[in-house]
């Protein structure tokens, strides 16, 4: 921990009020993790206990090693989707090997500075990421409301009333916890039959144990697990770093993204050695912890993992009685409060450039369509890059002026703007080759040469003039442009 984090933890431990917030937040998150972990186990095609133990090991490990306090990491749907084909084709042991290799990849990527790439993700991609997340969280609750006893609907409505209304009266206890306790008490007291956490799968009755994957340590095994491990590493890091940035914004604090990256890798290594399915940061549970419960330190993350283990191993019979309606209400609350409603207001859409709105909508559409946050972010960044390149390319202007007369006449072309592949491809057509006098000057003092495409374009222009017997001088190059042109001029086809 940094000195600031250490002081924050010590201050929390000394303050009953702050400590109560962290403890209750950890308890609420643990309750919310149980059905999620069970559901993700089903997606991955593994025993439900594997998902629960993965949530425990990820949360506890990242509470010590992560770079973003109060962020929750556990088994996630994105990772489950990646490893599901491997489990189906080769079994659980190969999955464990892939999780371990993914942890190694994440540590290596952290050491190589992958966290710095976060600066290249535009704000509108972040907005789309958050909005898509909120939509996915809401969509994930819909199956819990279809084909169920009618009592589920009033119970869910009561839960929504509590989570939205109680904070207006008091914030002494998390509204999410109150909703879970009240709805559970009602269903137990009235002996009503509604879907519960216990219906999602068998809860474990013992602790996880250390193990090594029972696979051949050979090149053939590496060929099988390598693509899955690499996908888990990238998906996990992307979701974790994006979540960390989101928590930074919510809490107005900064976090160590490089530490978070290798912390995720270490957490996956620990999870793999305990036979887990791997995971990464969970945005929904993190928002419950930070936004819904007000947690701010590593204590809540650690306790979420500990409470999860205690709840499923020691109090499994009690936890199994919790109605899914209560957890659905909590997750709908997270979805509604996480969505950036300001981003879709008519006034915002009118003010925002169309390209920015397109980036946000592309991120949302792809994420919801693929059910994969990493795919949505990747497409969003790609769309942003293309639209930016297109917009910048149109900023390049070429102005032609004539000086002198007869044999002394000179055509001066003043190029203004950034020259790269998108803008320099049209540069060739901006000159009057037939009409120009024997002397031509291309003034680049208001430009910058960025890439080989521009050098090749300048070579093509000077070559076309040379064939007509016209002398061309290129002036005004800054130092960086001179270096790139000297290195490649005349050497490109």
UniProtKB/TrEMBL annotation:
It is found in: Membrane. Its main location: membrane. InterPro entries: Membrane-Transporter-like, SLC26A/SulP_dom, STAS_dom, STAS_dom_sf. The keyword Aminoacyl-tRNA synthetase does not apply. It holds the Pfam family STAS. Residues 400-488 form the STAS domain. PANTHER family: SULFATE TRANSPORTER YBAR-RELATED. This is SulP family inorganic anion transporter. It comes from Arthrobacter zhaoxinii.
């Amino acid at each position: 921990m940094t000195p600031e984090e250490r002081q924050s933890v010590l201050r929390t431990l000394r303050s009953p009020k702050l400590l109560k917030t962290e403890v209750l937040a950890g308890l609420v998150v643990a309750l919310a993790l149980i059905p999620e972990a069970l559901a993700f186990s089903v997606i991955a095609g593994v025993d439900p206990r594997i998902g629960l133990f993965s949530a425990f090991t990820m949360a506890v490990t990242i509470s010590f090693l992560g770079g973003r306090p109060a962020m929750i990491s556990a088994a996630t749907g994105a990772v489950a989707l990646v490893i599901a084909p491997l489990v189906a084709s080769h079994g659980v042991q190969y999955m464990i090997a892939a999780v371990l290799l993914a942890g190694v990849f994440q540590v290596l990527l952290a050491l190589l500075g992958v966290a710095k790439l976060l600066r290249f993700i535009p704000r509108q991609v972040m907005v789309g990421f958050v909005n898509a997340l909120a939509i996915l969280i809401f969509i994930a609750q819909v199956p819990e409301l279809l084909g169920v006893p009618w009592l589920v609907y009033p119970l869910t409505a009561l839960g929504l009333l509590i989570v939205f209304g109680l904070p207006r009266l008091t914030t002494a206890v998390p509204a999410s916890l109150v909703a879970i306790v009240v709805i559970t008490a009602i269903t137990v007291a009235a002996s009503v039959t509604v879907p519960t956490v216990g219906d999602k799968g068998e809860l474990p009755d013992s602790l996880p144990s250390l193990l090594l994957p029972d696979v051949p340590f050979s090149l053939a095994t590496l060929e099988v697990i390598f693509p899955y491990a690499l996908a888990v590493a990238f998906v996990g890091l992307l979701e974790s770093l994006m979540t960390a940035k989101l928590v930074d914004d919510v809490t107005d604090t900064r976090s160590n993204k490089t530490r978070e990256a290798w912390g995720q890798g270490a957490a996956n290594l620990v999870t793999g050695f305990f036979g887990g399915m791997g995971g990464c940061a969970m945005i929904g549970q993190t928002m419950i912890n930070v936004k819904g419960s007000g947690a701010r330190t590593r204590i809540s993350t650690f306790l979420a993992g500990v409470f999860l283990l205690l709840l499923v191993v020691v109090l499994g019979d009690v936890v199994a009685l919790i109605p899914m309606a209560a957890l659905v209400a909590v997750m709908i609350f997270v979805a509604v409060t996480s969505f950036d409603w300001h981003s879709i207001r008519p006034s915002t859409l009118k003010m925002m450039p169309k390209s920015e709105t397109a980036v946000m909508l592309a991120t949302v559409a792809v994420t919801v369509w693929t059910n994969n946050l990493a795919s949505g972010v990747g497409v969003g960044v790609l769309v942003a890059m293309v639209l930016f390149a297109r917009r910048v390319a149109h900023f390049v202007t070429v102005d032609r002026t004539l000086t002198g007369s007869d044999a002394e006449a000179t055509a001066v072309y003043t190029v203004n703007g950034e020259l790269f592949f998108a803008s320099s491809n049209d540069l060739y057509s901006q000159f009057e080759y037939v009409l120009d006098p024997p002397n031509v000057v291309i003034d680049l003092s208001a430009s910058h040469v960025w890439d080989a495409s521009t050098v090749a374009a300048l070579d093509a222009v000077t070559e076309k003039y040379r064939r007509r017997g016209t002398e061309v001088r290129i002036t005004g190059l800054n130092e960086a442009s001179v270096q790139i042109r000297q290195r490649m001029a005349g050497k490109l086809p």
